[in-house]
Task: inverse folding
């Protein structure tokens, strides 16, 4: 991938996933170790219920997250826009993908496959540190949002108001 | 607090399997060793969150509410971390209180400490464990959310 484009993507991640001491150079190295791929409109990136074989850095574009309902139809629950991470939970805890993720328009992802993810997670290198901290910031934010929604849902005075909202974008994005 | 006894306690945690004593000594130097008698509050629900606690010895209870409304919602054992959202979110507040069930010892982990210890194998092991535990907590949280949404749709 063109380094100029990659540096712009790195800046986007630094803006949206800030962490003290996290260096742009380390994130650039991390992304250079992954495999960039263009994904066409409508192509499925993650299949609900499948084993996780890799995680995806959503570098450009947007994806639709959907769940299969009890009648077997896909129901859209969120749209995720770059910069974002997809599919990292499955690699972290070994559980199956919890949702389907599909490209809306052309998107660019950087694939971090399972062996590379495992290696980076245990690595002392700047890239390993960058991966751990970026996804920790991402997951901590998601958990805070999720906890807040749960707290609101169980408070009777907020229940009706929250019920009208869509689930948060973070819900089931793996 | 670096003592032979404290390093030995760290070596007994599966989290640090295979990590050299020197690295664990460095971890002790970077972080703050804190001990809590039975019944002592480690942190209080609603307070500003400034760090996470790695339990080295003992057990902590996670509780919500206070007084007659108090309810235990979990426990944290040796080798586990509590309060970790403080490390990765800005301006976080504690969503629950944590109290020592019996005499317990913890390492206080902060952002500064993690940044200084980026090359320390014990810090890498802690971060790696946090990735796994946060993924599991997210799934659990999402299951709870799905259940609540389903109840909402059914008009419960």
Result:
């Amino acid at each position: 991938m063109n380094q100029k484009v990659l540096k712009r993507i790195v800046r986007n991640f630094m803006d949206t996933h800030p962490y003290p001491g996290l260096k742009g150079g380390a994130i650039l190295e991390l992304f250079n170790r992954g495999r960039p791929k263009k994904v066409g409109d409508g192509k499925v990136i993650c299949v609900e219920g499948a084993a996780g074989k890799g995680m995806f850095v959503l570098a450009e574009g947007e994806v639709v997250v959907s769940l299969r309902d009890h009648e077997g139809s896909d129901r859209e629950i969120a749209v995720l826009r770059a910069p974002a991470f997809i599919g990292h939970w499955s690699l972290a805890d070994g559980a199956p993908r919890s949702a389907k993720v599909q490209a809306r328009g052309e998107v660019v992802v950087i694939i971090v496959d399972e062996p590379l993810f495992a290696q980076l997670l245990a690595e002392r290198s700047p890239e390993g540190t960058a991966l751990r901290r970026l996804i920790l910031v991402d997951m901590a934010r998601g958990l805070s949002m999720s906890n807040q929604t749960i707290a609101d849902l169980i408070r009777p005075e907020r229940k009706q108001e929250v019920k009208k909202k869509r689930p948060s974008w973070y819900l089931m994005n793996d | 607090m670096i003592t032979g006894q404290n390093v030995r306690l760290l070596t007994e945690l599966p989290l640090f399997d295979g990590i050299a004593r020197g690295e664990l000594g460095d971890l002790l130097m970077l972080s703050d060793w804190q001990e809590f008698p039975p019944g002592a509050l480690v942190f209080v629900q609603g307070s500003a969150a400034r760090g996470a606690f790695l339990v080295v010895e003992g057990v902590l209870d996670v509780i919500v509410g206070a007084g007659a409304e108090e309810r235990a919602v979990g426990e944290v054992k040796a080798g586990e971390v509590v309060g970790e959202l403080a490390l990765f979110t800005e301006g976080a507040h504690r969503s629950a209180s944590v109290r020592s069930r019996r005499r317990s010892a913890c390492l206080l982990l902060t952002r500064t400490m993690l940044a200084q210890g980026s090359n320390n194998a014990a810090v890498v092991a802690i971060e790696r464990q946090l990735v796994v535990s946060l993924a599991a907590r997210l799934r659990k949280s999402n299951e709870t959310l799905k259940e609540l949404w389903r109840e909402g749709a059914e008009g419960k």
Remarks:
- The interface with chain B takes residues 18-21, 88-89, 92-93, 95, 98, 121-124, 126, 128-129, 132-133, 135-137, 139-144, 146-147, 149-151, 153-154, 159, 163, 167, 171-172 of chain A (CB under 8 Å).
- Chain A is about 45% helix and 30% strand.
